[in-house]
Amino acid sequence: MKKRDLQRFQKMLLLQKEQLLGNARKALSGDIHLDPDDFPDEIDTASSEIGLSFIGRLRERERGLLNKINAALEKIEQGVYGECENCGEEIGLKRLEARPVAELCIDCKAEQEKLERRMG
User: Fold this and answer.
1) Quick one: which of 55, 49, 60, 15 has its CA closest to 31?
2) Residue 22, CB half-sphere, CA atoms under 13 Å: how many?
3) What is the per-residue pLDDT across 33-77, written as a single tens digit (0 to 9) for each?
4) Per-residue model confidence (pLDDT) at position 91
5) Structural contact between residues 82 and 90, judged by C-beta atoms closer than 8 angstroms
6) Sequence-distant contacts of 18-24: CB under 8 A, at least 24 apart
7) Cα–Cα distance, 56 to 65 (Å, whole number)
8) Please, where are the H alpha helices in 27-105?
9) Looking only at Cα atoms, what is the longest distance across the chain?
10) Where are the domains of the chain?
């Protein structure tokens, strides 16, 4: 992969990382809270709790994505970014542009998904 492409992907990954960390900072600063006095009845309270649960699941997904971003940045540092972890072939630029944290080439990913569907 060309150095210019690596720099572009590194910039994309760092920007995405900063956005995720910004979301986490907002959550930790008290932007998300549940105060029972804010809700006049049980339905409002339940609705708010469901919303908070959903936000919690989103945070878990963001945490997983952050781990993948950090792994991709480490691969850039090691000089192995863009190599398929399964077959060792180069992951296509189009795939990396769509998903900069991709670990598998399109063929290996398709095979993985086919196996997952068979397994149920």
Assistant:
1) 55
2) 6
3) 545 555 556 666 666 666 666 666 777 888 899 999 999 999 999
4) 97
5) yes
6) 20/62, 20/65, 20/66, 20/69, 21/66, 23/59, 23/62, 24/59, 24/62
7) 14
8) 42-78, 93-98
9) 60
10) 1-81, 84-120
